[in-house]
Write a structure and sequence with these properties.
CATH topology of the largest domain: Arc Repressor Mutant, subunit A
Order of helices and strands: HHEEEHEHHHH
Number of domains: 2
Strand order of the largest sheet: 1-3-2-4
Distance between the termini: 47 Å
Helix content: 40-55%
Largest sheet: 4 strands, mixed
Number of helices: 7
Radius of gyration: 16 Å
Number of strands: 4
Length: about 180
């Protein structure tokens, strides 16, 4: 179990990879972990040693805002808010998985960094957050399948439903891939 009080945690540092590189990494990770479209992201996280917990961020406001706590490889916690929808939770879990892959595993494995502890907060808006969002969108909505499905469906809502994400997430992914969908 993670003892947050006695350990020093670092904030995620951006990889500064191109958006397309992050998309490719996310799709490769999804394939390696056998993630299926509209699948169970929580099971994926648990399969690689993480735990997903529900947290009342409003009750703890000002005390603890960590949404991802990584103590070591295969020892991490993902917190999802108690007041959000399952579709939002899916994206949040994929986003936190993105932080784990890009801002923890990448520095360890690719940059040969010495092990460290990582904590991503709920209210960030810097480049590392963008990267985690890019990762989540490509993990949940891989480009080839997304484009193929976008041709078949008539609305963003239908597209979102096919991938188990919110309409907002599907709309942002469509825009990133320069895809026009019926509505």
């Amino acid at each position: 179990m993670i003892d947050q009080a006695t350990d020093a945690f670092e904030a995620p540092q951006p990889t500064n990879l191109l958006k397309t590189s992050v998309f490719n990494i996310a799709e490769n990770i999804a394939n390696q972990l056998n993630y299926q479209l509209d699948g169970d992201v929580k099971s994926v996280i648990e399969h690689i040693g993480g735990k997903v917990l529900v947290k009342d961020f409003w009750a703890e406001r000002g005390k603890e805002d960590g949404s991802l706590i990584v103590r070591s490889q295969n020892d991490f916690l993902v917190y999802i808010p108690s007041d959000t929808s399952p579709l939002r939770d899916t994206f949040t879990m994929a986003h936190e998985l993105g932080h784990y892959v890009l801002h923890y595993l990448w520095p360890l494995q690719v940059q040969k960094r010495v092990p460290f502890k990582l904590k991503a907060t709920r209210y960030g808006s810097d480049r590392a957050e963008w990267e985690a969002n890019w990762f989540a969108s490509a993990f949940l909505m891989p480009e080839a399948e997304f484009k193929k499905t976008a041709i078949r469906v008539k609305s963003i809502g239908q597209l979102a439903s096919e991938f188990g994400v919110s309409s907002q997430a599907a709309s942002i992914r469509a825009k990133a891939l320069d895809i026009n969908v019926g509505d």
